[in-house]
Amino acid sequence: MIRLDRGAGLWTATIARPDKANSLTSAMLEALADFAEEAAGAAQALVITGEGKVFSAGADLDEARAGLATSPLWERLSGAIAAAPCLTIAALNGTLAGGAFGMALACDLRIAVPEAKFFYPVMKLGFLPQPSDPGRLDALVGPARAKMILMAGQKIGADEALAWGLVDRVVPRETLDETVAALCADALAASPAHVAGIKAMIG
């Protein structure tokens, strides 16, 4: 349910459970976290995307009821992505919801299709977001807009997300892969040490 491609410098993880809106099980989260941790020592660029028309609806409903919604696996995954010294890109092929927000917030860049929507309904569901997510969201969009998403439960469309700084570009679905490839090109042409050095200078 997670397709992993370890290319020559470009590593891609694809969430491939479109019949379940790419909702994530604990096994899928572990596979993604393992992949991100491995990519940190081997890749110049790491891309995370989804199959179909939804990036991810967050936790699998059955496993969420059993505790996955508040599992430390989410934080492990976003932490691994944030710590990776390579260029990290979330290629958002569709709507992003709930705990899946964390992996996108942890990436260096977020590229979305026009149909994508963004929401994180923790207030309604009665539990806290993952520990690092509010801070990363605040850094991107500011505290009031972070509260719009996390406290007021607002669903944000792609154009508004772009205006807020939540995503960095909105591109047609048919050009998403091409856009992401172009963004990775310079990093793939550089040494891993050069990529890591520039990323470390930015913070």
Distance between the termini: 33 Å
Average pLDDT value? 96
Provide the gyration radius in Å: 16 Å
Q: Beta fraction of the residues?
A: 15-25%
User: How many helices does DSSP assign?
Assistant: 10
Number of individual domains: 1
Can you count the beta strands?
A: 10
Unreliable residue stretches = none
Largest sheet: 6 strands, mixed
Tell the overall outline: globular
Second-tier CATH architecture: Alpha-Beta Complex
Secondary-structure-based class equals alpha/beta
Helix content: 40-55%
Structural descriptors:
2-enoyl-CoA Hydratase, Chain A, domain 1; four-stranded mixed sheet; 20% strand; six-stranded mixed sheet; alpha/beta; 44% helix; globular; single chain; 203 residues
Question: What does this molecule look like?
Answer:
This protein is α/β, with parallel strands linked by helices and 203 residues long. It has a single domain, classed as Alpha-Beta Complex (2-enoyl-CoA Hydratase, Chain A, domain 1). Helix content is 44%, strand content 20%. The protein is built from ten helices and ten strands. The protein has helices spanning 26-39, 61-65, 72-83, 101-105, 122-125, 133-141, 143-150, 158-164, 176-189, 192-202, and strands at 2-6, 10-15, 45-50, 54-56, 87-92, 95-97, 109-112, 117-119, 156-157, 169-170. Strands 1-2-3-5-7-10 form a six-stranded mixed β-sheet, with helices on both faces. Strands 4-6-8-9 form a four-stranded mixed β-sheet. Helix 1 (26-39) links the parallel strand 2 (10-15) and strand 3. Helix 1 (26-39) runs parallel beside helix 3 and helix 6 crosses helix 7. It is globular. It starts with a strand and ends with a helix. 45% of the residues are buried. The mean pLDDT is 96.
